[in-house]
Amino acid sequence: MERKIMDKKIKHLKLSLIAITASALLFGCSDGNDGADGKDGVVGVDIDSTSSIQAQFTEASVTDGLVTVNFNLENANGVAVLGLDKDNDLRFGIAQLAKVSETIDEVEYDRGYQWQAYNNALKEPGTPPDDSSDLNPSPQYQADVEAASACEDCLVDNGDGSYSYTFQQNIANVTEPLAITYGEDNTHRVTMELKLPQATANAHHDWQPSTGAITDIQIRNVVSIETCYTCHQPESLELHGGRRIALENCASCHTSTSGDPESGNSVDFTYMIHAIHKGQDRETSTADGMVPAPYKIVGYGGSVHDYGKVMFPQKPAANCASCHVEGEGAPANADLFKADLSNTACVSCHTEKPSQTHSSTNCVSCHNSTDTYRGTGSAEKRHGDLLKAYTEAEAMGVMFSNIGLDTSGKLKFDVQIQDSSGEAVGSEFIETGTRVIVAWDTDKDFPAYADASYSNRRFKLEDGTYDSAAKTFTIIASTFDMPSDADGKTFELWSTVEVCFNSGGYLVESIQMTECSDKTRSVAVKEAPYHFVWSGSGVDDTMQAAMRRSIIDAAKCQSCHNQENYHYNNGYNCQTCHTSDKTTKTDDSYPGGKKPTSYAFKAHEADGHYLKYAGVQSGTVLKTDCSTCHTTDGIQLGRASDRVWRYGDTTTGTDIWVSSDAGACLSCHQKYLSDSGANHIVANGGILDGMSAADVNTRSAEACSTCHNPAQLMELHGN
Fold first, then answer.
1. Angstrom distances, CA of residue 672 to CA of 215, 618, 663, 713
2. What is the pLDDT of residues 63-111, one digit of tens each?
3. Which residues contact 615 (CB under 8 A, 6 or more apart)?
4. pLDDT at 72
5. Residue 611 in this model has a pLDDT that exceeds 90
6. Residue 443 to residue 388: CA distance in whole angstroms
7. CA-based R_g, the chain, Å
């Protein structure tokens, strides 16, 4: 025992001596100060790992014609993105905003400020496409950007998410293929586009090289991308392979000297955008009359982009403010369209020959606000004349009164059109061939088609009687029977009545309501449907009308379609006629040869809502984005279990009846419904083969809403 204790003491002593010796050695080497902290590492994410990327220029300068820019890369959380390499898909552009003039017949005209790119290339037409109609191949200049990969040392990585780039193009010495004179006092714009497999970044920077100023300089910012998103989905505007997503980048590359060699058409941004949106309505005058003048561009691989298939939803297509939105938060030059400086926008919509009476393409020499040719008016006035009738009609109203039954038990009511001051409008100013539509069960998807077809629920004013003293029409709805259980039901009277206005044009000083004739135009009076609750033989004023569930946001429809849609241009009450059980329509282009005519089917299948998969292969409204039209709770399933849809069998065309939720889904998916999809619907209580509405209601036991909640549906459809 004593031996073991002694061994432990000796071992402990040895360890203590070792520790003391080591400590002494360390102490002997020390200068008496603690070691300094090392340099902090850079906090960042590698460019190959980031799921998002944003670029921002911080500085630009020109030295002896060489442009150098500094910029930062960050992800969506503000974390530096590291490791950008010249061999990434990275490109830079440089342009100046120069004063432009045009000489016509020895007269010089001011054309304002326009972008001119320094990088340009002369392009010869390639192999013509199979369909060469409306194409006029010719050599064209095209603005370009330079690839960072073409220079070994132009890009500098500072290692902290900041970078610099020196342009390969010396902008003080540009002579080929276009001679560009560098103006140090002109506003210049550098642009960047970075395309990663998982993310894209665009950026621009405007400055004046002579002073370095970025404020109080000449600019040309006309339209905001947010305005485009009113109708377009962001992904539908990701162009050139998804590389270019910012309007500022587009505008400084699509310059007035740029064209498409295969078509011979200009791709100047102003010209191109207006020509595209004129779409199928673009025409030109010939000796044989007006003929279509579709705007076409030949893209990558000889593919023809035929914008003559575009159906611009803004009707009438004269409201410049649809895109050129002014007011708070608007781009600085949003009102540039009122300046009447350039013919480019004019001829892009109206073509160089809009009528036989036009012999000059110098449109603004007559159509301007400062030296207007007699009777023509400026562009703002001429477009405004076309729209003024709609503004006037929108301020009018429709008054329903004396709602009751006639001696035969038929619905009877009076209707009066009133001007903006509430005064009755005489029948001579009213298009009496327009109608009032009657419906009930507003909260239950309106009357069943079998009970009262829509054609039996609409009544022309001219078919009623007119009291000229009271300026009131009396309508008797003799073509349908009042429902036997009418008491307590919500009814609606919906006016599609139109009033007449003179047309604008040469020598027309003002637009005003005018006695109807074959020389006038008629415009719908905008008024919401009048709802009331029926009781006994008339209106029960003590009862609150039951409203249909909120599905569509009419304001969203209006933002794209403006004043006119398809027919009955008083708002978006289409479902009052196009009920879910409305008859099918013969159409050989649809599987089975029969298409449904319900509102949901028509809206989802509308050509303009479906362009991603047809036409020019470039979607305006992508059909998978439910929020484009629907309210936030507009796709809740299970809310109308007694609704029945009428479809045509996709093989035989025979009418079939479909249960509520399944029918809503089929309005998009019927063409593509697989056997497994159909089996899934049926297994969960849906009916796809009903023999009648009663058959469906007897057998249906849908449980779709159990799994498919609104959030899940929105995510599934790409929202």
1. 55, 21, 14, 18
2. 999 999 999 999 999 999 999 999 999 999 999 999 998 888 888 888 8
3. 306, 309, 310, 607
4. 98
5. no
6. 35
7. 35
Q: Count H helices, E strands: the chain? A: 13, 33
Determine the Cα–Cα distance for residues 11 and 117; give it in Å rounded to an integer: 85
Please state, as a whole number, how many other Cβ atoms lie within 10 Å of the Cβ of residue 584: 22
> Strand runs (DSSP E) across 78-186, as ranges?
80-82, 89-104, 107-117, 120-123, 140-143, 146-147, 155-157, 162-166
Contact 366, 376 (CB under 8 A): yes
- For residue 646, with 0-12 CB atoms within 10 Å meaning exposed, 13-18 middle and 19 or more buried, which class applies? buried
Closest CA to 350 of 361, 341, 365, 339: 361
Taking only the tens place, the pLDDT of each residue in 487-540 is: 999 999 999 999 999 988 888 888 999 999 999 999 999 999 999 999 999 999
Instruction: Please tell me the distance from the alpha carbon of residue 321 to that of residue 343, in angstroms, as a whole number.
Output: 18
Burial class (CB in 10 A: 0-12, 13-18, 19+), 600: buried
Contact status, residue 205 vs residue 57, Cβ threshold 8 Å:
yes
pTM of the model as a whole: 0.85
Instruction: Please check whether residue 350 is in contact with residue 386, taking contact to mean a CB–CB distance below 8 angstroms.
Output: no
CA distance 406 to 403: 10
Mean pLDDT over all residues of the chain?
A: 89
